[in-house]
Amino acid sequence: MNEGPILAIETSQSTCSVCVYFSDDKFYESNLNLKNSHAEKLFEMIDAIFKSCGIKPNELSSIAVSSGPGSFTGLRIGMSAAKGIAYGSSLPIIPVPTFEALALELSYFLPEGSKFVIANKVNVEEIYFAKFQIKSNNYIFAENLNILTLDEFHLKINNELVFGNTAASAPVGIRNNISSPGSFYVARWAKMFGDKFKTTSFDFLEPNYLKNFIVKDRKNDKKSF
């Protein structure tokens, strides 16, 4: 008996992406690059893609959702949508590390042995940073995911390829502003590595922000978590 398809959701940056993945040769993917549109458009895209491929949520095997790091609001919207559909259809969720899904996507296009950096904004002063290398048509970490200041980021860059929404600020190297994976690769990562991460414990499932979300109280300049 064949396992059912995977619904994949990617909302970590400005692109809202949804995929129903049956296999590498059969999938339905929809992408919308429109800032601040995730809350309005995500369920609309999911409904449309179910109609296109002719299945219902209860025919899925699981839901893969990009879990960060990335935009606080975008990740919350994607995770909430995944939880709602999963709960209603008794499906497990696979949280997919965003940078690793993007590294997997890049491994399909970069030459063997290539080293590259993914660097996305945390805020105006800090950057999510990780360094990877292509090995055996896949990726390995050359430097683990971390948060760096802009100065630290500049010191880390040699002549590597730099991907992400901070790539333009890299002092050297080849730069590309691709900052998030397509939902196809979120699904592909889940298919390859996701079995041990499947969960139905939704109450404890949260996006990976790497740091606490801080809200400033403008009246007294206090910070709350």
The strands making up the biggest β-sheet line up spatially as: 3-2-1-4-5
Q: What's the CATH topology label of the largest domain?
A: Nucleotidyltransferase, domain 5
State the secondary-structure class: alpha/beta
Query: Kindly state the mean pLDDT as a whole number?
Result: 90
Rg (C-alpha, Å): 18 Å
The global form is globular
Percentage of residues in helical conformation: 25-40%
Q: Give the strand content.
A: 25-35%
Can you describe what's shown?
Helices cover 28% and strands 30% of the residues. By secondary structure, the chain is of the alpha/beta class. The protein folds into two domains: 6-98 and 181-224, ATPase, nucleotide binding domain (Nucleotidyltransferase, domain 5, 2-Layer Sandwich); 99-176, Nucleotidyltransferase, domain 5. The strands form three sheets. The protein has a five-stranded mixed β-sheet, with helices on both faces. Strands 8-7-6-9-10 form a five-stranded mixed β-sheet. A two-stranded antiparallel ribbon has the order 11-12. A hairpin with a 2-residue loop joins strand 7 (126-135) and strand 8. Helix 1 (38-53) packs across helix 2 and helix 3 packs across helix 5 (183-193). The protein starts with 5 loop residues before the first strand and ends with a strand. Mean pLDDT is 90; it is low at 214-225.
